[in-house]
Structures
1.
Amino acid sequence: MARRVFLHIGAPKTGSTYVQNVLWGNVAALKAAGILLPGKFSAHDEAMADLRELPWHATPRWSWDRVVEKAAAWPGDVVITNEGLGAATPAQAARGVRSLAPAEVHVIVAARDLWRTFPSMWQQSIRARGVWTFEDFIGAVERGSFEDFWEHHTANRMLRRWGDLVPAEQRHLITVPGPGQPRDTLWRRFAGVIGIPDGVCDLAVDGGANVSLGAAEVEVLRRVNRALGERYPHRAPYQRVVQRHLVDAVLRQRTNDLRFGVGPERAGWVLDLAEQQIKELDEYPCDVVGDLAELRPVDPEQQPAPDQLRPDQVLETAIETIIGMISHAEQLDLMVPEPRVSPLERLRKKAARKVRRLKSVVRTGS
């Protein structure tokens, strides 16, 4: 049975891609150090979907149990990581922690300032087939009609659902470093919680960050999603087609230099929310790694909201995106080898061409 199991449950858009890339890029080294990541990256995603009983995720119902079995067979420490776990209901979270007994379960949650979180979360929703405008999204949060944002994407609620299931010393809150800090700061905070010594992991294998799209690019994608309707209702087909051939191959390759944000008219509201969040987390008994002050936006840039784009900016980006997809299609064609034709087949085709010419001569009488 595992000695300790670290459940890294989110929140989304808190550098989880970076942390997971380092973890999965160093599986062998971590295993040699006594730390197991059971299964593969996809197994953790499937386990999350199984535990949460997500109807839109095609995954076997025994996926969570299979990861738990692998953890149970390991004598050292185990890491299970998926930022979607934090959105589990209280009952689902309780089942997850209970299934790992008698191992010592630790819950790891990361938190990021809301000024950066709001635009990132809206963009993530668009990259997951969403169609609502940024104004619809942020307006719903502001009016209190989008409670799922707080439930699924903030450390406060996640700690209440998951952290309350384990002793205070086994709850860990990692704050995401602000701009300007060394790139590996987040990793070193995460590694310190688990007890991964310096030098075990090669940080050069992290695979890069999850590149954000620019305002015009994400607006083009939003309109494409709206036009697609229910053509790709499930995540896997959407990722296989739209994510791969539009987002990854074209949109992410652009300069994406037209940035966007919450908008200056909501700066005061976001700052007030940040103070409330800091106060609530400060009062919650857990191990804080980093500084809660990092959840307070510092000199937030007054970037416009994406809904304020001019029509010509969207049109120009759409045209350039089509050109990019044409180039992508051409590259794919070059990757497909010409079909091999046997000598007999070549003779048949040559004879068929001669027959067609003879028939043409007979019809024209020449």
Note: The chain has two domains: 4-210+265-297, 215-258+310-351.
2.
Amino acid sequence: MPPCRTALIYSPLLGNFSYGDDHPFKLQRHHLAYDLLEAYGLLKLPDMEIRDCRPISEELLLSFHDRAYIERLKEFSASDQPRADFSYGLGDADCPVFKGLYDCAALGAGATFEAVRLVEEEGFQIAFNLAGGWHHAHRARASGFSYINDAVLAINWLVARGRRVVYLDIDAHHGDGVQEAFYDSDQVLTISLHESGIYFYPGTGFEDEIGEGRGKGYSVNLPLIAHCDDALYMKAFDEVAYPLIAAYNPDIIVTQIGADTFRTDPLTRLEITTHSYSYIMRKLKALKIPWAALGGGGYDLMNTARAWTIAWGVMNGVQLNPRLPRSFMNKIAPLGYPNRVLLDAMHWASEDDRNLALSAVEKSIARIRKSIFPGIIGRYGPLV
């Protein structure tokens, strides 16, 4: 069997930007993850490459985003003064305006494009952009820490080349911007497992959001209520996402693999650990479908570093020591991180919470199997 060629997309220039000291989205998490990858020896594997990237092109930007919105983004990015335009979602607490904002967002989007390009054109089986996954950006509005929707732009390029794509989003937040872009397309199957919009941002992503026109049945949402644990998360993936991906059998999978589902994340109420996260990474790798992965959310910096290290290890077929490397522990100790382990034991929520979450996930699975499965499984066939 030929070796699995992988690429890690990484630009040190992203460290030049900041959303602000008090903002939960910390760009330095990419550097923390990079340090952990290095400590595990995952940056010098024989069949991997580290690739830099360029900012996304204007042509690709305008394949989804409104020109007037992009011009305003550039204008504010160049300003030395605080600016705001709430009609475009710019300048509020979630999407602050800062010097170099456009350059930061365009570089992150360019890294995602480079990931899919390497898989599409250069024969890489897997490419991973730590700085990708800004899935809340809309056509003419910033939202949810996201200014440019990198996944949409990259997928648009693939679709223009005749490729069929699965977009899988396991971030705790619904991938609303990506769903919006492909809601009427049967060339992109979007699947999002996320915390329920009943009480959680962005308030979308319910089972009845299934697409429209040619895209009816190609938008799949599995909302999870608070305290969904490892076993329930794996159940949701195994009974909905995995069979749909296998049946659709895309030319490429694009995943948003945010780590804000973890039980110690400060912004969410799910109870996922690295146990179910690594399980999903292994299942995706086993599909042997060309794969571009995007980092996504994660507001506990060590959780994010651990998750992305696990993902990169799986992508490269490397078994990692469950204890963090001593060199890395020595580096993080002065920063106040007490972490000692990479891998968590499987976690079960308390009985009452778990029963409620189990009932909710079973109802969601049943609804999706009724509304989505007949079309996808019926048209493309079951997993063989």
Note: The first strand starts at residue 6 and ends at 9.
3.
Amino acid sequence: MDLISLLPELLKGFTHFTPGNAVMIGVGAVLIYLAIAKEYEPVLLLPIGFGCILANIPLAGMTAAEGMMGVLYRAGISSELFPLLIFIGVGAMIDFSPLLAQPRMVLLGAAGQFGIFGTLILAILLGFPLNQAASIGVIGAIDGPTSIFVATKLAPELLAPIAVAAYSYMSLIPIIQPPLMKLLTTKKERMIRMEYAPRPISQRTLVVFPIAITVVVGLLVPEATPLISMLMLGNLLKVSGVVDRLNKAAQNEIINIATLFLGLVVGATMTASAFLNWDTGKIMLLGLLAFALDTVAGLLFGKLMSFLSGGKINPLIGAAGISAFPMAGRLAARVAQDEDFENFILMHAMGANTAGQLGSVMAGGILLAIVSHLV
């Protein structure tokens, strides 16, 4: 058999290569560029981009049921394992002391979920069925694991655009939120100084908190139990003070490995046939709208709290009521310091930010409960 007769076999990848594959490989390359050159959420956008490239190489077989990505999808996405492992690591990183010292920040965490439900209604009006609309709305929480967890249960066919939207907008928080902050607050409001006299939080309280939250949220919203329990388990590892190795493993090896495989598998779902359609564009726009509405609702509620307190609360902390921890809290504090370098509202913003983390999990559980009941 000569070389010429072998050419069709050697070039079969090119013969099955479509313009759609080329576009999606370009999308994967853009995600990798944003991860490396712009450092936009690199730990996830980089593996997502590479997985996207792999998914669009014809006949490679990696995304087939018996291929590596197919096996990882069943093991970590269908089983919901990867998002839950990531939540253990997130919980191990969170310090709930600012929230426990300022319980009223729970209100801002609740206000920061408004966009989820507003976008759900709009998505239904645009023709999406309830299960898909609920999954799209959760993008507004800017909480990747929660978005993936809800989408896997309600609309697995939309997993790729929902995951990409959630993590992309998370990386764009420093670009999207500041204009909204400055539009909805005055310079005088942004310069409000908030006293922080932290109440001492005992270790007993810190240990009881994750256990109590797991039980209460689990009883109120059973569908949220997997997410809240893993988040609280990670936090319990941190505050117990007796399992330092497990705490460090949760914050490093466990979350890093889960994030790597999650990113690859999400990227591997970004095939041309599944991604290049009008619905993807709608999902990206609706996700951006949900994010904006969550930020706006938090800021407006922050302004209300500022008014009711006689100007003692800086409304910027309302923008931290979304779930993107710790970026949203740090950004709110930075915007305040842009107006007054000696204005330190970081601990207040972190209280709202951790409340937003809890709020997004509960919102996701509520949506799962509603959709499961109605569908």
Note: The chain has a mean pLDDT of 89.
4.
Amino acid sequence: MRTFTATSSQGLAFMYEMLFAAAPTRLPIVMVNANRSVGAASGIWTEHNDSLPVREAGWLQVYVEDGQEALDATLQAFRIAEDARVRLPVMVCMDGFILTHTVEAVDVPERSEVDRFLPRFDTTNALVPSEPMVMSPIVPPEFAMEMRYQQDRAMQAALEVVNAVDEEFAELFGRRYGGLFEEYRMEDAEFAMMGLGTWVGAAREAVDQLRAEGRKAGLIKLRFVRPFPAEELREALKGMKAVGVFERSASFNGFGPLFTELRSAMYGTGVPITDHFGGIGGRDITVPDVREMYEVVERRARGGPVNQCTWHGLRGEQG
């Protein structure tokens, strides 16, 4: 049967081993993760340092902006996970407290509509007594590499499936999310930022303000971190004079995980990329905070000197 579960932060870490069991077993589980900080300095407020560190576990990861997208992404996740070309689990990530502890109105589809979108569940790896099989055994070197290769091919196939499912969802329910990522005012942008989750709302407002001032700012709302849409982002960002990346998860290695992903994708393009940390531990991110990020990116676009990595909204002295 279809399987849904949910977790957050310490709970995700507690079951870390099972993340790596579900994917190679090709179980199309859908799990919502409420993004919260892990370990000391933990809390019910949002950080992405619980889910981003496990992006190599073999799960698809989609990050949502609001309650409506959380609902819709969960429905889409089942279609994506169960597609024969994918057969991988999907993690729907939603910002802790901002989305988990607040109330907003959402359009809940009729059951009949959902049934049309989600066909009857079918699986190829059910446990059937008359056809015994071994699942999740110790795999010797003769086979392990091929298993990982098959997982990798399934993750790559998900790039196409995600976009197709989003289009079909739009036809049935009238809401479209852009598939792998959404572009906002990118048609003639000279500089842009990319980020995840609820930050995007403030970023849209900042972009609108900058546009009203005649400054050609743009925005990429990244939805899927796995599969990471490297080629698609490379195409969307070609010709940019500078790109900034917003991080809500510190890698404690100078740069954040999204910066590392995008820099790898943009290698050889010559597009300058800057990294921007903010909202760590659930600290509020305001439109002025985001404008400050864009100021740095715009200054870099004009060839001015900037720090490649900047922390925004810190209290007290900054070293």
Note: Residues 36 and 42 are 7 Å apart (CA to CA).
